Amino acid sequence: MIKVNLSDLDDINLTTKLPSANDVLSYDSTQSSWVPKSLSIDSAVSKPYVIDLATWNIKNDGTSSAATTKGINDALVWASSQGITHCLLPNGTYTLKIDNTSFSCLLIPSRMHFEMADGCLVQLEATSSPWYRIFSLKGTSNSRISGGTVIGDKKSHMYQLAVKFVRGGVNPDGSLNANPNFIRSEVVDRYSNPGLLKSFRLWSMTGVSSTGYSFFQYKDTVSSSTLAGSRTNGLFAPASPTGRGWFAEIENANKMIFTIDITSSPLTDDQIAQLAAKVDSQNYTHEWGHGIELAGANHIQIDNVDISNCTGDAIFASWFEYKLNPADYTQDQMGSHIYIHNCDLHHCRRQGISIAGSNDVTFTNNKIRYIGRADDGKTEDGTAPMFGIDIESMWSETNIPTWRPELNQAGFELNTRIYIRDNYLLNNNRGHFVNADGIYVTLDNNTFEGYNVGGISSYLNNMYVKYLNNTMIGCELTVKGDNFVDGALCTNGNIKLADIAGAVITNSKVVNGLFYGSSTYGYFGTPTVDLATGTFTFSTPHGLGNGAKVIFEQWIGKVPAGASVDKLYYTVNITANSFQVSETLNGKPITITDIGTTGFNLSRYNYGRCYISDITVERDWRADNSLSPNFQLLLTGGILRNITVKNFEMDIRTPANYAGRPITIDGITLIEGGANFEACNLSNSSFLRAKTGILGGDIALGSNDARYTRKVIADNCLFQNVGINYNGNVTNNRSTLINSSIGKTDSTTIAVITNSYLENTKINLHWLTRDKSVTIAKCIFNNVTTDINANTRMLDNLTL
């Protein structure tokens, strides 16, 4: 055996730091040496400090809220000062009281793991404060909260006070008087209701005609010597919704009396005794009572905690604090590296979790349920928004210089890189998830269950948002902007398209629900042209700014001479409904020499960016042919591939008078359903029925509506046991029609069927009155019957 001292080796550094943790070494590439491993809180193997309840005067029987709150905080401060990084609160029930000025209960220091033992319940005593945080981590780093049950005061919370009155007033010096023409309130104690009274409102009362009141504030007791200040210009709510404040901090102004002049509406003593004025807060929704609040916190872990019945959110994560000078903000103050897992967040009034600024947030294996609902899981019992997860920093309403890539705006990252995986969200009152301004957001393998209004959505301008392999049961996924959806499974739920601008939706299934919505972003159509000025005017506002990129197209019609379909143009001299175009940014408007031919398109250069593939929409059985267009889309040039619809109808169309790029559809399989198509290039599709078809026909290719004149092209399609109506301008090539029927409305539109195989099929076109309405050429007929007249041309067809 060879024995050697580690310090004698040239790649070992034991001088900077002594070994610990069973002498574990790790390689430091910057030093090119092995050094003692640094332990994180998570990897610490030492036993936690079990908080001694007697030493810190803590009660675990639900009593002595003030002493218990102080005791736990004192224990944490002491432990931190001793270098202890893990404290364990024993089982029991702990009632907490908010601080009068910070509105917080427990303050978690940095580098501290606060663990609640099994059976540990922490509850907030009833308060009237619109704000509170049971756990506060402000500017905290490298800390953890785990275990236990945390209960807010939702069921006992006080949203207002009822203040009684006696006859008499208050002199200007603050002393009391017996003036019969005034009524005076009982003394209002700010210590008892510090949050509610921070910005208070006094409401008008029936029988009192005065429009205003006076108020007097005191230190500790009511006398002329303790008067902190007074005002005579108070106005009653709700006519005046703005609250009034205090003349000093709570320790110097904590008592208050209201007085009202009743000269114009005298009251008897009995009437005065019946008065009870409502006093509430300007912040009347009381939506800021949080279970755990992170403010500018970094490297935080929250796990295995049950949080419920808060008046606001179970967990709220935001930036540090408001700075008067924007230059004083730092990236660390935005908060980062928050890891929340295996928690149960439920029955809170406002949200399950709000991510309101923090970056690099991972949220996994949590339950979020019944937000905004009462114990029965049905009755609404909350305040908006009432979502399970809300990503919303409200950066545009702050003075924080914020990085926004969609605006080419530099600044600090807020709500960036958020990963939400393997969570279960159930019956949240208005929605499960909403992303107002998060960037690089991924939702992976979550289950969302229960009907809601808000659904699961991300706003239009949020970049790099991905929905991967999520399950929606009885709710709706709303896809916006350039969201990426791969693997959505909806049962009794829907996928909706709204404000699409580049979105991809693929590998998804909808059972007993809808796949519907519209994608018309950036399409404007044919404008009215002012030849003299080269101005293009639209019937509705276009929403563009100067310098927006636009293009001309002439799928139908002809662009004005002087404009080109091969060039990219920039808008100049915009009004709400009009603009001119230039070949260079902020350049001179182009000159046109004619107004073109009606039907050309002038739109954003990137309109029509909607990509849908590998979608199934189905139900097991349809009892009748009542029309159910559960796959229904309004598109401007979108692309669809590999779509299967069973026992429902399809409706894919463009806006009226559409002048843009056709919708491209490749690979539809429609089973036991009908379909309508407008302005589509349709290929490689199958339309199959075994049951009795829809009266009047199953498949409509185009229509005879004068607003829809664009051609439908159908290539290499199979129609079996269906009725096909060639109602629009249709070219149908290389298709197979078996046990089907061909019909058409009598209109000016022209239908052409070529190079196709028809078997056991009926051609019913005898009522057509316009020349050359239908042409059937170079087709093979096998047991085909015809009922036609001279307006249907039959050319070079072969009958077997």
Walk me through what this model shows:
By secondary structure, this protein is mainly β. It is 3% helix and 42% strand. It has two helices and 75 strands. The strands form seven sheets. The chain has a 37-stranded parallel beta sheet that branches. It has a 19-stranded parallel beta sheet. A hairpin with a 4-residue loop joins strand 1 (25-28) and strand 2. The longest helix has 17 residues, at 65-81. The chain is elongated, with a radius of gyration of 36 Å. Residues 39-45 have low confidence and may be disordered.
Large-scale geometry: elongated
Give the distance, in angstroms, between the N- and C-terminal Cα atoms: 96 Å
Arithmetic mean of pLDDT: 94
Helix/strand-derived category reads mainly beta
Helix content: under 10%
User: How many whole angstroms does the radius of gyration measure?
Assistant: 36 Å
Poorly predicted parts = 39-45
Largest sheet: 37 strands, parallel
**Beta-strand proportion:** 35-45%
Number of strands: 75
Given the structure, what is the number of helices?
2
InterPro entries: Beta_helix, PbH1, Pectin_lyas_fold, Pectin_lyase_fold/virulence
Protein name: Right-handed parallel beta-helix repeat-containing protein
